[in-house]
């Protein structure tokens, strides 16, 4: 997940004065990249996947779930192998890389290194996905679970967050969801 720069879009009447500049420099950038890459032979394309997990707290006694806003605590544990590798405390590459997402109840997991262009690489995907789920679960509290749904079905219902907050609406301007669910990074609110 890359950083976004801050800015204000121009209305067309203001933007059209820059159209020729953008067109010329866009073509120039394309040609520079093309020239630098055109003679490469047999380059192996690399690829990967990402899975976004919701952190769900399970109350067995009450038979209910809530979204847990502990993503940053969990990420702090999950990122240890990557930090150790980057600081040369170990020479073992991490099996997975972890990043925050939009919500404080979400974490993103990707493979530790990209896959290549062979059939053998395809066979690594499922086992790495299983490993990432296991690692995520191990970094959570005993009553938490990594869930892979598009979104939490009861998001926006009262008392569905742990800890609980009242909707206050300054950043997300929602009558149902409090701003505390949003990642505090400047990219989001």
From TrEMBL:
It comes from the Eukaryota. One of its GO terms (cellular component) is glutamate-cysteine ligase complex. The keyword Nucleotide-binding applies. Pathway: Sulfur metabolism; glutathione biosynthesis; glutathione from L-cysteine and L-glutamate: step 1/2. The keyword Metal-binding does not apply. GO terms for biological process: glutathione biosynthetic process. Keywords: ATP-binding, Glutathione biosynthesis, Ligase, Nucleotide-binding. One of its GO terms (molecular function) is ATP binding. InterPro entries: GCS, Gln_synth/guanido_kin_cat_dom. Gene3D superfamilies: 3.30.590.50. It catalyses: L-cysteine + L-glutamate + ATP = gamma-L-glutamyl-L-cysteine + ADP + phosphate + H(+). Its EC number is 6.3.2.2. Belongs to the glutamate--cysteine ligase type 3 family. This is Glutamate--cysteine ligase. It comes from Rhizopus azygosporus.
């Amino acid at each position: 997940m890359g950083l976004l720069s801050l800015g204000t879009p121009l209305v067309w009447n203001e933007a059209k004065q820059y159209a020729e500049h953008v067109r010329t420099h866009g073509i120039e950038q394309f040609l520079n990249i093309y020239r630098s890459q055109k003679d490469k032979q047999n380059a192996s394309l690399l690829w990967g996947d990402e899975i976004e997990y919701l952190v769900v707290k399970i109350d067995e006694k009450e038979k209910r779930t809530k979204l847990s806003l502990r993503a940053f605590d969990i990420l702090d544990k999950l990122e240890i192998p990557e930090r150790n590798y980057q600081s040369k405390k170990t020479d073992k590459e991490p099996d997975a890389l972890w990043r925050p997402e939009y919500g404080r109840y979400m974490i993103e997991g990707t493979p530790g290194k990209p896959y290549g262009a062979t059939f053998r690489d395809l066979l690594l995907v499922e086992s790495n996905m299983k490993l990432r789920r296991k690692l995520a679960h191990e970094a959570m509290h005993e009553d938490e679970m990594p869930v892979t749904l598009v979104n939490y079905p009861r998001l926006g219902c009262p008392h569905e967050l742990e800890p609980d907050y009242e909707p206050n609406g300054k950043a997300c301007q929602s009558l149902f969801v409090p701003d505390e669910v949003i990642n505090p990074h400047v990219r989001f609110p």
